[in-house]
Amino acid sequence: MTLTMFTLNAFYGLALAMNMFIIASGLNLIFGVLRVINFAHGMFYMFGAYIVFTVAKSWGAPFFVGVLASALALAAIALVIERLLLRHLYDKEHLMQLLFTFAIVLLMSDAAKMIWGTDQYSVGYPPGLGGAVNMGFVILPQYQLFLCIVGPLIAVAMWFVVDRTRWGRVVRAATQDREMLAALGVNVPMVYAAVFTIGSALAGIGGALAAPRIALVPGMDATIINECFIIVIIGGLGNMWGSFLGALAFGFVVQFGTVLAPNWQDVLPYVLMLVVLIIRPWGLLGRPETGH
Amino acid sequence: MPQRRSLIASAVVVLLLALLPLAGSRYAIDLTTEVLIYALFALSLNVLIGFTGNISFGHAAYFAIGGYGCAILLTTYGWPLALALPAAVVLAGLVAAVVGYFCVRLTQIYFAMLTLAFAMLVWGVAFKWKEVTGGDDGFTGIKMPAMISHHIGYFYFTLVMVSLGVAALWVICHSAFGLTLVAIRENSVRAGFIGVDTRHMRWAAFTVAGTFGGLAGALFGMYHRGMYIENAFWTESANVLIMVLLGGIYSFIGPIIGAAVLHLLQTFTNQYTPYWPTVLGLILLVIVLVLPDGLIGLARRVRARGGRS
Amino acid sequence: MTAMLSIGGLWKSFAGFVATRDVSFELLAGETHAVIGPNGAGKTTFFNLITGHLRPDKGSVSFEGRDLIGLPPQKIVRLGIARSFQRINIYPRLTVFENVQVALIAHEGQQWNLFRPGRSLHRQGTQELLELVGLAPEALETAGELSYGKQKQLELAIALASQPRLLLLDEPTAGMSPQETGETIASVRDIVKARGLTLLFTEHDMSVVFGIAERISVLHHGEIIASGAPDAVRNDPEVKRVYLGEHAHG
C-alpha cells in the first residue's frame, strides 16, 4: 500500500470514526446517565438522515438547515417519548426499559415505511463541501475533512460541558447516585429528559451528517445500532472518551478491513469487539458496575 | 399433588395433538408444527432468562447452528438423520459452552451485549461462508429422510422430539440444579454466600439453553427444507425473547404460551396487513407498561384476586 | 482458648476514603462478640472483608489457621463461616421454605444435580430450621411478602443452613419492634448455645449488645478504639465521648 493510499484510507477511516462517534456518543450519554440502552437510537439516526433528505432535497432548503431540522425533530420526538412513556419505567427492571425502546423501533420503522416508503434515497454533498483538497501527495475530499473537524469539536464540547460546567456536574452526579441528587433538590426528571433529548438529537445529527456519505435504505437503523453497540462496548459503557476511542478503532478497522480483507469486512467489527472484551471485559476505558 | 396434575394435563395435551392429523387441515397441521418448534425454542431461552435471570440477545445463534448443522450434515454429507440430528444439537451445545464461558464473566447488560456480539459473529460466518452455508441465498433443498418428508410424518416427528425436549427441560428446571438457578436469579450475591459457584452454574445454564435451542433449530430447518441467514440475525433472537416475555418468565409453561400466542398472532396479522411490526410494538408496550410477568403472571394475579374475594 | 478468627492490620480504602484503618482483631472460639460503632464506622465493610465480598488493600484474615484473603464467598462459606446481611438479602420470589431449602441443597453440594426434583430434597432439615427460628407457619408464603422482622428471621435460617461454626450477623434486630428484638435475641442466644457457635455481630441496639455480648469492640472511622469486656468498654472514656455520648437514649 502506497503512502497515498494509506493516508487516504486512514483519512476515510477517521471521517467514518468521527461520524460514528457523534452517533455513539448520544447512546453512551443516555446509558451513562439513565442506565438505559436505547435500541431506538438507530431508528433516530435513520430518521435524522431521512429528514435531511426531505428538507434539503425534496424541499430544496440548504443542507445545514436540514441538519438543524433533524436535530430539532429528533429532540422533539425523544422528549415526547421520554415524558409520556419512558419515565414510567425508570424504577422497573432494565429489561423492561430495553424492550420499551425496542417497541419504539418497531413502531417507528412502520412509521418510516408509511412516510417515506421503501425506496432508496440519496443526499448529495452540500455545495462548498463537495469537492476535494489537494494536499500534494494525496487528495482529500472536503466533506470527510469537515467530518474530521466536527467530530472532535463535538467531543471537546461535550467534555467541556460535562467536566467544566455546573450542569455537567449535575449530570455526572446523576450517573453516580440519582436518589442522592433528588434529595439535594435537583430536578432529576428534568435532567433525565434533557439527557435523553440531547442524546437522541445527537443520533439525528449523526444521521443527517451521514446522509451525503451513504445510501438511505430501510434497515439502515439495524446496521447502525449494531455498530454503535460495538463502539460503546469497546470503549466502555458510559465513558465518553471510551466511545471516542471505540469509534476510532471501529473506523480504522472497517476502512482498512474493506481494503485489505474485503470478504470479511462485515464481520471484522464483531471480531474487534470480541478481542477487546476478551482482553478487557468491561471495555477499554470501562469499569465494572457496582450492582444496584 | 400438583406435579401429578400437570403430568396428566401434559399427557392429555400431547394426546390431543397426536389426534390432530385425523381432523385438522394441512394448514392447521403445519401451523401446529411451527408452534411446537417455537415453543421448544422459547423454553430453551427461558432456562437462561426465567430460571437464571440472565437476558440473552443472541439465542438465535444456537438455533441457527442447530439448523444449519443438521441441514448440512443431512444434505452435503449425506449423514443419516439418527446421526445428523444429535450431532447438530451437540454442536450447538458446544458453541454455547464456548460462548457462555466468555459471557458469564460479565453480568447484566454487558452479558447481554456480549451474547449479541457472538450471535452476530455466528451470523457473519453464516453469511460469508457461502460454500458451506449458502450465504445470502440460504441453504436450501435439504435432503429429508423418506419417513418424515410427508407433512403428517414430520408433524409426528416434531411432536415426539419436542415432547422429549420439553420433558427433559422440565426435569432439569425442577431439579435441585433448577432451584439453585432460580436462587441465583433472585439474589446472586446471596447464592454465592450459601456456597454456590454462580459463575459455573450460569455457564451450565447457558450451555443447556443453547443445546435445546439447537434442537429447535434443527427441527425448524428440516421443516422449512432450508435455513436462511435471517434465522441467525438478531431479529430472530428478539422474536423469541418477546415470546418468552409475553408468556411470562416466572413459570415453566409461560414461554410455551407466549410462543403459541405470538406465532399465531403473527401469522394471522400477516394475512391482513404488512404492519406486523406495529402490532408487535404495541404488544411490547403493553407487556412493558402493564404485564411484566406476561400472560401467565396476569392469569395468576387474576386467579389470586378471584380466590381472595 | 484458641483464636478462631485472626485479623491483622486490615486496611481498606475506597477512592481515597479510608473505610477500614489498621484493624487487628482476635475472635476466640465459642465467644459471643459484638462490634459496635456509629453509622459509617465501617462495620459492614469489616464484615464484607471477612466474608470475601471485598478484598482488603493490606492485612491478613485467617480462620482456624486458614488464610481467607482472595477466596471468593462461596469458598469461605464452605470453611464454616455464615453471615446474615444488614439489608435484607433473601430470594424474594421463592417461598420461605424454598429459601432455606436451596441453602441446604447448596451446602450438600447438590446444586449440580440435574435429575432429583428440587422440592423433595432436605424437607426435614428445612422444616427443622424453620421451626428453630419460628417461621414454620409461614413456610409456604412468598419470602418477599413477609414482614421485615420475619424476613430477618429468614436471613438467620439461611445462614444457619450452611452449618457454620462462625456466625456473622449484621444488625440482626435492625428495624424491629422491642418485642421482636427480644424474641430474636433470645432465639439467637439459644441457637448459639445449642450448637456451640461462635457469634460475631454488629448492632445499634445497646440493650441487645450489653445483654448477650461477652466481649465488645468499638469501631469509629474504621478504627477499633476499644475492645474488651462489656463493663470495661462501657466505662472507656474514649468510647463514651465518641459513641455512647451521641446516643441520648443509649
Structure description:
The complex is a heterotrimer of chains A (292), B (309) and C (250). Chain A has helices spanning 3-34, 41-58, 63-84, 94-116, 142-164, 166-176, 178-183, 188-210, 220-235, 240-260, 268-279; strands at residues 132-134, 139-141. By secondary structure, chain A is mainly alpha-helical. A two-stranded antiparallel sheet of chain A has the order 1-2. By secondary structure, chain B is an all-alpha fold. Chain B has a domain at 24-231. Chain B has a two-stranded antiparallel sheet. In chain B, 55% of the residues are buried. By secondary structure, chain C is of the alpha/beta class. Chain C is built from nine helices and ten strands. In chain C, the strands form two sheets. A six-stranded mixed β-sheet of chain C has the order 6-7-8-3-9-10, sandwiched between helices. The model of chain C has no long low-confidence stretch (mean pLDDT 85). Classes of the chains: A mainly alpha (292), B mainly alpha (309), C alpha/beta (250). Chains in contact: A-B, B-C. The A-B interface holds A 37, 85, 88-89, 92-100, 102-107, 109-110, 113, 222, 226, 229-230, 233, 237, 263-264, 266-267, 270-271, 273-274, 277-278, 281-282, 289, 291 and B 55, 102, 105-110, 113-114, 116-118, 120-121, 124-125, 127-128, 189, 234-235, 238, 242, 245, 274-275, 277-278, 280-282, 284-285, 287-289, 292.
**How many extended strands of chain B?**
2
What overall form of chain B do the CA principal axes indicate? globular
Mean pLDDT of chain B: 88
Low-confidence stretches of chain B: none
Q: For the report, how would you describe the main beta sheet of chain A?
A: 2 strands, antiparallel
Largest interface: A-B, 42 and 38 residues
Distance between the termini of chain B: 25 Å
Largest sheet, strands/sense/barrel of chain B: 2 strands, antiparallel
Q: How helix-rich are the residues of chain B, as a percent range?
A: over 70%
Order of helices and strands of chain A: HHHHEEHHHHHHH
What would you call the shape of chain A? globular
Class inferred from helices and paired strands of chain A: mainly alpha
Helix count of chain A? 11
| Secondary structure category of chain B | mainly alpha
Record the strand order, biggest sheet of chain A. Answer: 1-2
Structure at a glance:
The complex is a heterotrimer of chains A (292), B (309) and C (250). With 292 residues, chain A is mostly helical. Chain A has helices at 3-34, 41-58, 63-84, 94-116, 142-164, 166-176, 178-183, 188-210, 220-235, 240-260, 268-279, and strands at residues 132-134, 139-141.
